[in-house]
Amino acid sequence: MCTGKCARFVGLSLIPLSLVCIVANALLLVPNAETTWTKDHLSLQVWLMAGFIGGGLMVLCPGIAAVRAGGKGCCGAGCCGNRCRMLRSVFCSAFGMVGAIYCLSVSGTGLRIGPQCYMNGSWGYHFEETSGSYLHNRSQWSLCVEPPGVVYWNVTLFSLLVVASCLEILLCGVQLVNACIGVLCGDCRKKEGAGQ
């Protein structure tokens, strides 16, 4: 596979993943689709905006750069074998990898600690001491009275962020290697024809 075609495939995969992370983080801000709890009772991991900033905007940048690196070339005819765009994609991919790692670490911590909720007459992180074992015991989830359904909401969305950020790390790594090869060797489509 040509470095340009690979870059385009990776870019077109990273863009929807980054949008998924942005939407998941936005939904975490409104537990059970209600804004009542947003002001005082969201967990720190939600406010760190890892899905919006890390897995979202920081990965959208390498996604767009990879799609552009898979284009015709910086001067429109592919005369440099896309080396300039590939070099830009190297830096963007490294930047995106940092964002995806940030998203993964915050989302994993959010899953391990659990949501902030009202249980046994007080607000707090009541699942923090379980070290994530509450994830396997769904009967404990209903013990969180407020916000209603917050455990299910957080587990679903943070799990989605973990999976998406793992895929982003993998794809950014692939594009990092692919772009380095593209910088050194150029795009093989130069030989096949500039119009591709």
UniProtKB/TrEMBL annotation:
GO terms for biological process: regulation of G1/S transition of mitotic cell cycle. It comes from the Eukaryota. GO terms for cellular component: lysosomal membrane; plasma membrane. InterPro entries: L6_membrane (IPR008661). It is found in: Membrane. Belongs to the L6 tetraspanin family. It is a multi-pass membrane protein. It holds the Pfam family L6_membrane. The chain crosses the membrane at residues 9-30, 42-69, 90-113, 151-171. GO terms for molecular function: arginine binding. It comes from Catagonus wagneri. Signal peptide: none annotated. This is Transmembrane 4 L six family member 5.
